[in-house]
Amino acid sequence: MKLTVTKQGTGNGVVTAVPGTITWSGKTGTALFDKDTSVTLTASPAARAWTGCDLNIGLTNCMITMSVDKGVTVEFGTKVKHDFNGDGKADILWRNETTGDVAIWLMDGTKMNGGDFVARGVSADWDIKEIGDFNGDGKSDVLWQNTAGDVYIWLIEGTVIKTGGFAVRGMPDEWQVIALGDFNGDGNDDIMWRNTNSGDIYVWFVNGTERNGGGYVVKSMKSEWTVKATADFNGDGKSDVLWQNTTTGDVAMWLMDGLSMSTGNYVETAVPDNWQIKGIDDFNGDGEADILWQNTTIGDAVIWFMNGLSIANGGYVRKGVPQNWQIKVVGDYNGDGKADILWQDTTTGDIYVYLMDGMNISGEGFVTLGLSNDWQPK
Protein backbone atom coordinates (compact mmCIF):
# COMPACT_ATOMS: atom_id res chain seq x y z
CA MET A 1 0.00 0.00 0.00
CA LYS A 2 1.45 3.36 -0.98
CA LEU A 3 0.80 6.84 0.40
CA THR A 4 2.16 9.80 -1.54
CA VAL A 5 2.23 13.23 0.07
CA THR A 6 3.01 16.28 -2.04
CA LYS A 7 4.10 19.60 -0.58
CA GLN A 8 3.14 22.73 -2.49
CA GLY A 9 3.43 26.48 -2.00
CA THR A 10 6.20 28.92 -1.17
CA GLY A 11 6.20 28.52 2.59
CA ASN A 12 8.09 26.27 4.99
CA GLY A 13 6.67 23.25 6.75
CA VAL A 14 7.08 19.71 8.01
CA VAL A 15 4.70 16.76 7.59
CA THR A 16 4.80 13.78 9.95
CA ALA A 17 2.77 10.54 9.82
CA VAL A 18 1.70 8.21 12.65
CA PRO A 19 2.11 5.26 12.29
CA GLY A 20 4.85 4.84 9.71
CA THR A 21 7.60 6.90 8.16
CA ILE A 22 7.47 9.13 5.11
CA THR A 23 10.50 9.12 2.82
CA TRP A 24 10.95 12.48 1.10
CA SER A 25 12.33 13.11 -2.35
CA GLY A 26 12.23 16.84 -3.01
CA LYS A 27 8.67 17.95 -2.32
CA THR A 28 7.15 14.43 -2.51
CA GLY A 29 6.96 11.95 0.36
CA THR A 30 6.22 8.22 0.01
CA ALA A 31 5.38 5.61 2.67
CA LEU A 32 4.22 1.94 2.67
CA PHE A 33 1.33 0.77 4.90
CA ASP A 34 -0.72 -2.37 5.47
CA LYS A 35 -4.29 -2.46 4.15
CA ASP A 36 -6.87 -0.64 6.34
CA THR A 37 -4.19 1.17 8.34
CA SER A 38 -5.46 4.53 9.57
CA VAL A 39 -2.89 7.27 9.20
CA THR A 40 -2.98 10.74 10.69
CA LEU A 41 -0.85 13.34 8.94
CA THR A 42 0.12 16.45 10.88
CA ALA A 43 1.34 19.62 9.19
CA SER A 44 3.18 22.47 10.83
CA PRO A 45 3.60 25.42 11.03
CA ALA A 46 0.39 27.43 10.64
CA ALA A 47 -1.10 28.51 7.31
CA ARG A 48 -1.60 25.12 5.73
CA ALA A 49 -4.35 23.39 3.76
CA TRP A 50 -4.89 19.67 3.11
CA THR A 51 -6.63 18.13 0.09
CA GLY A 52 -7.38 14.44 -0.47
CA CYS A 53 -8.19 13.58 3.17
CA ASP A 54 -10.88 11.16 4.34
CA LEU A 55 -11.28 13.43 7.37
CA ASN A 56 -9.87 16.85 8.20
CA ILE A 57 -9.16 17.24 11.92
CA GLY A 58 -8.78 20.86 12.88
CA LEU A 59 -6.23 23.04 11.12
CA THR A 60 -3.27 20.70 11.25
CA ASN A 61 -4.38 17.08 10.89
CA CYS A 62 -5.52 14.98 7.93
CA MET A 63 -6.76 11.40 8.50
CA ILE A 64 -6.86 8.78 5.74
CA THR A 65 -7.63 5.04 5.71
CA MET A 66 -5.29 3.04 3.48
CA SER A 67 -7.74 0.80 1.60
CA VAL A 68 -6.12 1.66 -1.73
CA ASP A 69 -3.14 3.70 -2.86
CA LYS A 70 -3.82 7.32 -2.06
CA GLY A 71 -2.32 10.72 -2.57
CA VAL A 72 -2.81 13.80 -0.44
CA THR A 73 -1.46 17.31 -0.80
CA VAL A 74 -0.56 19.89 1.82
CA GLU A 75 0.07 23.50 0.86
CA PHE A 76 2.17 25.58 3.22
CA GLY A 77 2.05 29.34 3.55
CA THR A 78 4.61 31.53 5.24
CA LYS A 79 5.05 31.05 8.97
CA VAL A 80 3.11 33.71 10.89
CA LYS A 81 5.15 35.79 13.32
CA HIS A 82 3.87 36.19 16.90
CA ASP A 83 1.35 33.35 16.47
CA PHE A 84 1.25 31.75 19.91
CA ASN A 85 -1.64 29.30 19.39
CA GLY A 86 -0.89 28.15 15.85
CA ASP A 87 -4.13 29.36 14.25
CA GLY A 88 -2.34 31.24 11.48
CA LYS A 89 -3.03 34.65 13.02
CA ALA A 90 -0.58 36.90 14.84
CA ASP A 91 -1.22 37.55 18.52
CA ILE A 92 0.03 40.26 20.89
CA LEU A 93 2.50 39.67 23.73
CA TRP A 94 2.36 42.32 26.46
CA ARG A 95 4.60 43.10 29.40
CA ASN A 96 3.67 45.39 32.26
CA GLU A 97 6.81 47.42 32.89
CA THR A 98 5.75 48.21 36.46
CA THR A 99 4.61 44.82 37.75
CA GLY A 100 6.56 42.52 35.41
CA ASP A 101 3.37 40.67 34.43
CA VAL A 102 3.33 39.06 30.97
CA ALA A 103 0.12 38.43 29.02
CA ILE A 104 -0.93 37.28 25.55
CA TRP A 105 -3.94 38.44 23.57
CA LEU A 106 -5.11 35.90 20.99
CA MET A 107 -6.22 37.93 18.00
CA ASP A 108 -8.81 37.60 15.24
CA GLY A 109 -8.52 40.63 12.99
CA THR A 110 -9.09 43.75 15.07
CA LYS A 111 -10.71 41.78 17.90
CA MET A 112 -9.24 39.92 20.85
CA ASN A 113 -10.37 36.29 20.74
CA GLY A 114 -9.14 35.19 24.15
CA GLY A 115 -6.04 35.69 26.19
CA ASP A 116 -4.55 35.31 29.63
CA PHE A 117 -1.56 36.00 31.81
CA VAL A 118 1.47 33.93 30.91
CA ALA A 119 3.43 34.86 34.03
CA ARG A 120 3.21 37.41 36.83
CA GLY A 121 5.87 39.46 38.52
CA VAL A 122 8.83 38.63 36.29
CA SER A 123 11.86 40.39 37.74
CA ALA A 124 12.88 43.66 36.12
CA ASP A 125 16.38 42.32 35.44
CA TRP A 126 14.87 39.96 32.85
CA ASP A 127 14.15 41.53 29.45
CA ILE A 128 12.17 40.10 26.53
CA LYS A 129 14.70 40.17 23.70
CA GLU A 130 12.91 38.44 20.83
CA ILE A 131 9.87 36.39 19.83
CA GLY A 132 10.25 33.42 17.48
CA ASP A 133 9.54 29.73 16.94
CA PHE A 134 12.46 27.78 18.41
CA ASN A 135 11.04 24.25 18.21
CA GLY A 136 9.32 24.40 14.81
CA ASP A 137 5.80 23.66 16.06
CA GLY A 138 4.31 26.70 14.34
CA LYS A 139 3.78 28.51 17.65
CA SER A 140 5.84 31.47 18.76
CA ASP A 141 8.12 31.30 21.78
CA VAL A 142 9.83 33.96 23.92
CA LEU A 143 13.55 34.64 24.36
CA TRP A 144 14.61 36.34 27.60
CA GLN A 145 17.96 37.67 28.80
CA ASN A 146 18.87 38.97 32.24
CA THR A 147 21.50 41.41 33.42
CA ALA A 148 23.82 38.52 34.34
CA GLY A 149 23.91 37.43 30.70
CA ASP A 150 21.69 34.37 31.19
CA VAL A 151 19.45 33.55 28.21
CA TYR A 152 16.22 31.62 28.80
CA ILE A 153 13.58 30.41 26.34
CA TRP A 154 9.88 29.91 27.00
CA LEU A 155 8.29 27.38 24.61
CA ILE A 156 4.69 28.60 24.40
CA GLU A 157 1.41 26.91 23.55
CA GLY A 158 -1.40 29.44 23.47
CA THR A 159 -1.01 31.38 26.69
CA VAL A 160 0.78 28.60 28.58
CA ILE A 161 4.51 28.03 29.02
CA LYS A 162 4.76 24.42 27.78
CA THR A 163 8.39 24.14 28.87
CA GLY A 164 11.47 26.28 29.14
CA GLY A 165 15.19 26.21 29.67
CA PHE A 166 18.44 28.11 29.66
CA ALA A 167 20.10 28.48 26.27
CA VAL A 168 23.23 29.84 27.96
CA ARG A 169 24.31 31.29 31.29
CA GLY A 170 26.64 34.19 31.93
CA MET A 171 27.06 35.46 28.38
CA PRO A 172 29.61 38.32 28.41
CA ASP A 173 28.10 41.82 28.25
CA GLU A 174 29.70 42.62 24.90
CA TRP A 175 27.68 39.86 23.19
CA GLN A 176 24.18 41.18 22.47
CA VAL A 177 21.17 39.39 20.96
CA ILE A 178 20.29 41.51 17.92
CA ALA A 179 17.85 39.38 15.89
CA LEU A 180 16.21 36.02 15.28
CA GLY A 181 15.90 34.26 11.95
CA ASP A 182 15.77 30.83 10.36
CA PHE A 183 19.14 30.86 8.62
CA ASN A 184 19.40 27.15 7.82
CA GLY A 185 15.79 26.64 6.73
CA ASP A 186 14.97 23.94 9.30
CA GLY A 187 11.82 25.68 10.55
CA ASN A 188 13.39 26.74 13.85
CA ASP A 189 14.41 30.32 14.54
CA ASP A 190 18.08 30.87 15.28
CA ILE A 191 19.75 33.54 17.45
CA MET A 192 21.96 36.24 15.95
CA TRP A 193 24.53 37.84 18.26
CA ARG A 194 26.79 40.84 17.87
CA ASN A 195 29.97 41.56 19.79
CA THR A 196 29.82 45.28 20.51
CA ASN A 197 33.60 45.48 20.97
CA SER A 198 34.81 43.59 17.90
CA GLY A 199 31.83 43.91 15.56
CA ASP A 200 31.70 40.13 15.06
CA ILE A 201 28.31 38.68 14.07
CA TYR A 202 27.59 35.10 15.15
CA VAL A 203 24.54 32.84 14.75
CA TRP A 204 23.45 30.02 17.02
CA PHE A 205 21.28 27.34 15.43
CA VAL A 206 18.60 26.43 17.97
CA ASN A 207 16.50 23.33 18.57
CA GLY A 208 13.98 24.02 21.32
CA THR A 209 15.92 25.51 24.20
CA GLU A 210 19.27 24.08 23.14
CA ARG A 211 22.03 25.36 20.90
CA ASN A 212 22.56 23.09 17.89
CA GLY A 213 25.67 24.44 16.19
CA GLY A 214 26.34 27.77 14.52
CA GLY A 215 29.12 29.99 13.31
CA TYR A 216 30.32 33.44 12.33
CA VAL A 217 28.44 35.43 9.70
CA VAL A 218 31.04 38.20 9.55
CA LYS A 219 33.90 39.48 11.68
CA SER A 220 34.87 43.06 12.56
CA MET A 221 31.77 44.73 11.10
CA LYS A 222 32.03 48.50 11.43
CA SER A 223 29.96 49.86 14.30
CA GLU A 224 27.98 52.27 12.11
CA TRP A 225 26.43 49.32 10.27
CA THR A 226 23.53 47.99 12.35
CA VAL A 227 21.33 44.98 11.72
CA LYS A 228 17.80 46.37 11.34
CA ALA A 229 16.08 43.06 10.68
CA THR A 230 16.42 39.48 9.56
CA ALA A 231 13.72 38.13 7.23
CA ASP A 232 13.27 36.16 4.03
CA PHE A 233 13.47 38.80 1.30
CA ASN A 234 13.85 36.44 -1.68
CA GLY A 235 11.41 33.67 -0.76
CA ASP A 236 13.93 30.82 -0.46
CA GLY A 237 12.86 29.86 3.06
CA LYS A 238 16.01 31.21 4.72
CA SER A 239 16.46 34.49 6.57
CA ASP A 240 18.46 37.32 5.06
CA VAL A 241 19.99 40.36 6.77
CA LEU A 242 18.92 44.00 6.38
CA TRP A 243 21.54 46.58 7.39
CA GLN A 244 21.50 50.35 7.80
CA ASN A 245 24.44 52.69 8.18
CA THR A 246 23.68 55.06 11.07
CA THR A 247 26.06 57.70 9.68
CA THR A 248 25.10 57.81 6.00
CA GLY A 249 21.56 56.38 6.09
CA ASP A 250 22.49 53.78 3.47
CA VAL A 251 20.39 50.60 3.49
CA ALA A 252 21.96 47.33 2.35
CA MET A 253 20.90 43.71 2.23
CA TRP A 254 22.69 40.39 2.38
CA LEU A 255 20.84 37.43 0.85
CA MET A 256 21.95 34.50 2.98
CA ASP A 257 22.51 30.81 2.40
CA GLY A 258 22.94 29.50 5.91
CA LEU A 259 25.75 31.49 7.47
CA SER A 260 27.17 32.65 4.14
CA MET A 261 26.17 35.68 2.08
CA SER A 262 25.18 34.42 -1.37
CA THR A 263 24.86 37.95 -2.71
CA GLY A 264 24.33 41.47 -1.42
CA ASN A 265 23.96 45.07 -2.46
CA TYR A 266 22.65 48.47 -1.50
CA VAL A 267 18.87 48.78 -1.45
CA GLU A 268 18.93 52.58 -1.08
CA THR A 269 21.47 55.23 -0.18
CA ALA A 270 21.32 58.28 2.08
CA VAL A 271 17.89 57.70 3.65
CA PRO A 272 17.19 60.77 5.86
CA ASP A 273 17.34 60.28 9.63
CA ASN A 274 13.66 61.10 10.11
CA TRP A 275 12.66 58.02 8.09
CA GLN A 276 12.71 55.04 10.45
CA ILE A 277 12.21 51.34 9.76
CA LYS A 278 9.16 50.36 11.82
CA GLY A 279 8.49 46.80 10.73
CA ILE A 280 9.50 43.96 8.44
CA ASP A 281 6.93 41.46 7.15
CA ASP A 282 5.14 40.32 4.00
CA PHE A 283 2.47 42.94 3.31
CA ASN A 284 1.41 41.76 -0.17
CA GLY A 285 1.43 37.99 0.33
CA ASP A 286 4.10 37.15 -2.25
CA GLY A 287 6.23 35.18 0.21
CA GLU A 288 8.93 37.85 0.42
CA ALA A 289 9.39 40.25 3.33
CA ASP A 290 8.76 43.97 2.81
CA ILE A 291 9.85 47.08 4.72
CA LEU A 292 7.54 49.49 6.59
CA TRP A 293 8.92 53.01 7.11
CA GLN A 294 7.59 56.02 9.00
CA ASN A 295 8.65 59.64 8.82
CA THR A 296 8.94 60.62 12.48
CA THR A 297 8.65 64.34 11.65
CA ILE A 298 5.44 64.42 9.60
CA GLY A 299 3.98 60.98 10.39
CA ASP A 300 3.85 59.56 6.86
CA ALA A 301 3.97 55.74 6.64
CA VAL A 302 5.36 54.00 3.53
CA ILE A 303 5.90 50.38 2.47
CA TRP A 304 8.67 49.13 0.19
CA PHE A 305 7.65 45.88 -1.51
CA MET A 306 10.84 43.90 -1.89
CA ASN A 307 12.01 41.41 -4.49
CA GLY A 308 15.32 40.20 -3.20
CA LEU A 309 17.71 43.13 -3.22
CA SER A 310 15.39 45.39 -5.21
CA ILE A 311 12.44 47.61 -4.33
CA ALA A 312 9.80 46.18 -6.68
CA ASN A 313 7.14 48.73 -5.79
CA GLY A 314 5.94 50.81 -2.91
CA GLY A 315 3.77 53.64 -1.73
CA TYR A 316 2.13 55.50 1.11
CA VAL A 317 -0.04 53.71 3.65
CA ARG A 318 -1.16 56.97 5.24
CA LYS A 319 0.13 60.53 5.43
CA GLY A 320 0.34 62.84 8.42
CA VAL A 321 -0.33 60.37 11.23
CA PRO A 322 -0.26 62.32 14.55
CA GLN A 323 2.92 61.77 16.55
CA ASN A 324 1.06 60.34 19.54
CA TRP A 325 0.16 57.32 17.38
CA GLN A 326 3.14 54.96 17.29
CA ILE A 327 3.64 51.82 15.19
CA LYS A 328 4.39 49.11 17.74
CA VAL A 329 4.23 45.74 15.97
CA VAL A 330 3.44 44.27 12.56
CA GLY A 331 1.84 40.87 12.05
CA ASP A 332 -0.92 39.04 10.20
CA TYR A 333 -3.84 39.51 12.59
CA ASN A 334 -6.60 38.22 10.29
CA GLY A 335 -4.78 35.25 8.76
CA ASP A 336 -5.01 36.37 5.12
CA GLY A 337 -1.28 35.91 4.51
CA LYS A 338 -0.60 39.65 4.55
CA ALA A 339 0.94 41.59 7.43
CA ASP A 340 -1.06 44.21 9.31
CA ILE A 341 -0.03 47.14 11.52
CA LEU A 342 -0.67 47.61 15.25
CA TRP A 343 -0.67 51.18 16.57
CA GLN A 344 -0.69 52.56 20.12
CA ASP A 345 -1.79 56.05 21.14
CA THR A 346 0.88 57.06 23.65
CA THR A 347 -1.45 59.70 25.13
CA THR A 348 -4.62 57.67 25.71
CA GLY A 349 -3.32 54.09 25.57
CA ASP A 350 -5.75 53.17 22.77
CA ILE A 351 -4.72 50.20 20.58
CA TYR A 352 -5.67 50.24 16.89
CA VAL A 353 -5.04 47.86 13.99
CA TYR A 354 -4.79 48.48 10.24
CA LEU A 355 -5.67 45.33 8.28
CA MET A 356 -3.51 45.61 5.19
CA ASP A 357 -3.83 44.47 1.59
CA GLY A 358 -0.52 45.54 0.15
CA MET A 359 -0.27 49.26 0.84
CA ASN A 360 -4.07 49.62 1.13
CA ILE A 361 -5.95 49.55 4.43
CA SER A 362 -8.67 46.92 3.86
CA GLY A 363 -10.09 47.21 7.37
CA GLU A 364 -9.31 48.90 10.66
CA GLY A 365 -10.53 49.25 14.19
CA PHE A 366 -9.82 49.68 17.88
CA VAL A 367 -8.67 46.60 19.77
CA THR A 368 -9.07 48.31 23.14
CA LEU A 369 -9.33 51.80 24.61
CA GLY A 370 -7.44 53.43 27.46
CA LEU A 371 -4.88 50.73 28.15
CA SER A 372 -2.37 51.76 30.80
CA ASN A 373 0.97 52.83 29.34
CA ASP A 374 2.60 50.38 31.76
CA TRP A 375 1.55 47.70 29.27
CA GLN A 376 3.80 47.58 26.22
CA PRO A 377 3.53 45.20 23.25
CA LYS A 378 6.64 43.23 22.38
From TrEMBL:
Pfam families: FG-GAP_3 (PF13517). InterPro entries: FG-GAP, Integrin_alpha_N. It comes from the Bacteria. Keywords: Signal. This is FG-GAP repeat-containing protein. It comes from Candidatus Magnetobacterium bavaricum. The lineage of its organism: Bacteria, Pseudomonadati, Nitrospirota, Thermodesulfovibrionia, Thermodesulfovibrionales.
